[in-house]
Amino acid sequence: MEKVFEEIKKRRKPNFSSCEKIVSFGREFSICSDNSGGVAGSIWNSAFEIISYLEERGFDPNVPILDLGSGTGVMLSLSAQARLCVLSDLPEAEPLIQHNIILNHVEARCCFAPLRWGWAGASACPITSYGPAGPCDLHELLPFALVIVSDCLYKSAAYSDLACTLAAVTRPGSEVIFAYSVRIQREHEFLDSLTREGSLPRFEVRLRRVHKDRFLVVLRRMS
Ligand SMILES: C[S@@+](CC[C@H](N)C(=O)[O-])C[C@H]1O[C@@H](n2cnc3c(N)ncnc32)[C@H](O)[C@@H]1O
């Protein structure tokens, strides 16, 4: 499987284009886009909602953060506060995320971990990571107390895989900070599946509309 990932990465020619300045916890970061990178190549608006929410509310800097579906790796900006940010996505997202990590000199606090939701569709949803050992060894860091998911509800076919991964990376008491823009009118189905009586694990959901069609959701794992 690692060979397949290497092939995908070789086929894609990154084209890092404009870089956006963003401020998080009082520090300025530069996040470059990749206009050949599809959905993973640019910053999505929900990311800013999550950063603002965490700036306002604060969080324990000693708690490692896992970001699912990192795209550009914009959540590396949380390293202004967090000791360790694990940025995860499909393997082909790695070049842009690594580029942004290096550009912002946050190698000591941020790392990329390839993580495909619902890996192999197995019901046990094993976490498979072939990233470098060290801070990005997901197996050593699991379970995470704080998980970020920004704008990852745009394809309903992935909902069960994403739910499976959320279950695999959290423990009872973990918090998941979610934000999404309504694009396919089915986003509520994902949240319903996490809160349904009898669902395992079950999450408590606090939902706040932050824009006409954008929501910030704080999930707490109950079981
Ligand atoms: C809309 S982008 C959001 C990127 C980033 N979170 C943001 O808010 O700027 C969705 C991200 O989810 C990733 N993604 C999609 N399907 C995935 C899967 N099955 N496993 C892991 N990541 C996936 C994409 O590669 C992309 O980076």
TrEMBL record:
Gene3D superfamilies for the chain: Vaccinia Virus protein VP39
Organism encoding this protein: Paratrimastix pyriformis
Lineage: Eukaryota, Metamonada, Preaxostyla, Paratrimastigidae, Paratrimastix
InterPro entries xref list: Methyltransf_16, SAM-dependent_MTases_sf
Descriptive protein name: Uncharacterized protein
SUPFAM superfamilies, per database record: S-adenosyl-L-methionine-dependent methyltransferases
